[in-house]
Design goal:
Layout (H helix, E strand, L loop, with lengths): L1 H25 L3 H4 L19 H17 L4 H8 L3 E3 L4 H7 L11 H26 L5 H20 L4 E2 L2 E2 L6 E2 L3 E2 L1 H17 L5 H14 L3 H7 L21 H7 L3 E3 L5 H4 L13 E4 L10 E4 L4 E3 L2 E2 L9
Antiparallel strand pairs: 1-6, 2-5, 3-4, 7-8, 9-10
Helix pairs in contact: 3-6, 3-7, 6-7, 7-8, 7-9, 8-9, 9-10
């Protein structure tokens, strides 16, 4: 009897609360319930604030990181296409790219997303450099870094894709697309040299980054003497690190070898066309075989020891299997 009374009181109380809630909802503006105050500092309306220029720069550099070496990136796709890597997983698009048997545009390819990311990074770097020039001037290191990385997007588009790549942009005044005409590989490389020259002219810490890119573009253009001149003043110990974070985008080689999707090739394509990535015993190409095999266990897994970090925050021992 006591339990029955408690149950009755409970449901009466619940019913009263429900009725009170219904009355409260009926008496308020439901549109106000859906209004959310954005607590973020950065949104399209505030990006023009000169005090936020560092965030604009970081965003553009992040776009380059994703395109060049994050996820399915330029590094992995170009390595797959050139037989530096082979697909050791089960994705049909990766296997097709490995065999140079690309699908139709409607079905998509592994390289499609990388192309889009490179174009987005190119535009982001260009626009960020314009903002830096307006706020800090071209002599600031940020300007040289942005223009240097922008040059590498042109270089990647020229080296990784056939002639006909359009260079489109967005009009900053009208926010409308300005579609570019198809450009040849040589035109892309020439554009890359011009962008690298802008970075070099700014001086500062990233002139070496741009000079190396310019030298590479000139080699691709067959201008070997000019290429040697371009890199003559670059210190032999110069290094530029593309930095990653486990909170955003890991190093793509680390990630896709860590899960067994990509393996280092050796003489793929036969004695006439293959490159001896493993058998040459080049001290710059350190690797080990993971006994667990690839994601598809029918494939062996040869892992690069050069990329043993997802970021500077986490290391992966080359003797630890990915399945542990």
């Amino acid at each position: 009897m006591k339990n029955s009374q408690r149950t009755t009181r409970f449901w009466r109380g619940a019913g009263a609360l429900l009725m009170a809630s219904s009355v409260a909802l009926a008496g308020c503006d439901t549109d106000e319930l859906l209004e959310v105050e954005d607590p973020a500092t950065v949104n399209p309306g505030t990006l023009e604030d000169p005090e936020l220029i560092d965030i604009v720069v970081a965003g553009a550099v992040g776009e380059f990181t994703v395109a060049f070496s994050g996820g399915e990136s330029y590094l992995t796709v170009s390595g797959l296409m050139s037989d530096e890597l082979f697909a050791s997983g089960s994705f049909t698009t990766r296997i097709a790219t490995d065999r140079r048997e690309q699908f139709t545009a409607q079905n998509g390819n592994t390289s499609d997303g990388t192309y889009i990311n490179l174009q987005q990074a190119r535009r982001a770097l260009r626009d960020a450099a314009i903002s830096v020039e307006e706020v800090l001037g071209t002599s600031d290191d940020a300007y040289g870094r942005l223009k240097g990385l922008e040059g590498y997007t042109y270089l990647a588009l020229a080296e990784g894709y056939c002639s006909g790549v359009p260079i489109s942009n967005v009009d900053p005044e009208t926010a409308e697309f300005v579609f570019g005409s198809p450009t040849t590989t040589d035109e892309l490389l020439t554009d890359a040299v011009a962008v690298f020259d802008a970075a070099i002219a700014s001086g500062g810490a990233y002139a070496g980054l741009a000079a190396i890119g310019k030298g590479r573009a000139l080699v691709n253009l067959g201008q070997y003497g000019a290429a040697a001149t371009a890199v003559a003043d670059v210190a032999t110990d110069f290094v530029y690190h593309v930095e990653h974070s486990v909170n955003a985008e890991e190093n793509s080689i680390f990630e896709l070898q860590g899960n067994g999707r990509y393996s280092i090739s050796d003489m793929e394509g036969g004695a006439m066309n293959g490159l001896d990535f493993r058998s040459a015993n080049d001290p710059r190409v350190q690797w080990y075989e993971d006994p667990a095999g690839g994601f598809d266990a029918n494939f062996p897994l040869y892992v690069s020891e050069k990329y043993t970090r997802a970021s500077v925050l986490r290391c992966r021992s080359p003797v630890v299997s990915r399945h542990v």
